[in-house]
Amino acid sequence: MEEGTSMKNLSFYLLCGVWLMPVFAQEPVEEAKVLNATAASEVQSATPPVPRDAVLFSYRGIEMTAGVFMQYNMNSLERIYDEDPKDKDQQILDLLEYSVFSACVAEEGRKLGFDKKPEIASALHRKEIDWLADYFVGRNVHDNYDGSEEVLKKYYEDNIDKYRETERFQFRHIFFKTIDEPAEKQKEALQRAKDALARLKAGEDFVKVASEMSDSPKKGEIVGPFRVDEPDESKRINPEIQKAVLALETGKYSDIIKTKYGYEIFRLEEHVLPDPKPFERVRGEIDYERRLAYITQLKKDTVAKYFDEAVKGWNPEIVKNPAAKDEDLICTVYGEPLTVGYYRSMVKGREDAVQKEIDKVGLDPFIRYHLVFRLIAYKKACEMGLDKRLPSIERKQLNELQWLQKAYFDHAWKEYKDSHPITEEMIQKAYEENKIRILAPRDAEIAEIFRAVPEEKTDERYRVFKAQQEAQSALEKAIERIKAGEDFAAVAREVSEATNAAEGGYVGKVNSQSTYRGRTYISEVFRLEEGQFSEKPVSCDGGFAVVKVLKMYDRVPLSLEEARPRLTEIVLGQMRTAFRNELGKKLVNWDEVKIDPVVRDAVSRFGGVAREVFHDEPQGK
């Protein structure tokens, strides 16, 4: 490799191969040549920004520009720029090595004609349509959208009610329960409330009094926030509580107030009034809203202007037909086929959201303004020459690199696997090397005391809350009895509501991957040691429980047959590593790779490469 860099070992093959790592073990990697990070530090950091189309490296006719390198490694570069690690130079060179390797792999795919395969050519063309349609929108926004401060402020003033704070509040309370209590208990509750109020008036801290005296599980914690005009009925607070709290000044506490649940003392912590938000806080939101409105109107205007000349064979209803084939046409747009398959790929993974929008606007408008528009915008972008601009060229090179690299990898990896079948000897060897790490899930033999709670419903919220309180109270008493020396099984027979109560709550064996009564329950089991039981009720599927571990079993290695699927993955991982190393040696002679030191230094620094400029300067309105 030129510019005096030395070669050591093939580290980048392991660093950058996301699909290569074995599950448990990794074969040693042979020594080979790589770049040395020390040369990078010799380049002056004051190098001015280089053009995006400056060639970063070349190798046997293969080139990659600074711009393509930046896009290809964007996530890694952002992390490096942000963290500025001590080994930044070496990390940049690792990315550079992987980029050289990737470009060589993609070139092999091109030599085999993968870029001419219908499925790859179609995917690349669809990507080109998408980014040029986006560039068409960007050019129109750049040239015609007015996002000046004056316009945004006027919009803010004309629509001030849209930008008011949501009126909301939060509070603390000290609660003394009377609902479902006998008269004597209710009388006691009132006296306790009076005692608490007296302590507050004497200057004691509200939270301290609440933590010591309140019957609420909140124990003085903040409750809320709640919206004053909450549209969701399930999130509304009791109106009499809201009225009592909002009658207070912030930081002040109330007198004793009787509600249907008991006696309460409230303290208002925060009350946000529906005042207008400052313009500076909502400026970005306003700009976004107006840009979105402009783009929506642009789509409608563009389709209305060009639809008749562009669209032939309009048949949007075909997408409703489940028997329609992917290649069936919805229409053509300037000769470009708009197929059912394109529609299906666009909505895949977001069917509910798409159907919601179709229900709102109709199928015909949806397809016009989402799909037909993109094809019209693509055509107009090409007529404007946007496909010849540097960002488009970079995008095209990047997409070809990614698709051809994957295609050739898949092809070469299949050939390698076919010529290197996994043998029983390889499985046996992997088992011997990894069996102490391939273990069965841990087992525990347990018993339980379970109390059921009904499913929560909006209109039965208090009934459910009451059942939860009763279940937890019953289990807390059971825990105290067991701590006092009573037999767990005997308490379970008396207290538990599960069908296993007659057997002293005996559940049997569960393992760490079990779903019995939910993950919180299982987590509690394996938090405990043998002989221990829960010191507080555990929330679980269907209610609450106290768990006791009768016996904890050690994890044991899986048998070879039980471990076979995992062993196969280990062997495949080892094969992938060997395959990648062999491919790297075959495709790249590092002594012939030419790297421009100035461009290399530029990509290592934030701002070292000229930013992507698509539109002519100056920026629009």
Please provide a written account of the structure.
There is one protein chain. With 621 residues, the chain is α+β, with helices and mostly antiparallel strands. The protein contains 20 helices and 14 strands. It has helices at 12-15, 66-72, 74-83, 88-111, 118-144, 149-158, 183-201, 206-213, 239-246, 279-310, 340-347, 351-361, 363-383, 390-419, 424-434, 461-483, 488-495, 519-527, 560-587, 597-603, and strands spanning 55-59, 62-65, 168-177, 223-227, 257-258, 262-272, 311-312, 329-333, 336-339, 443-452, 506-511, 538-540, 543-552, 594-595. The strands form four sheets. Strands 4-3-6-5 form a four-stranded antiparallel beta sheet.
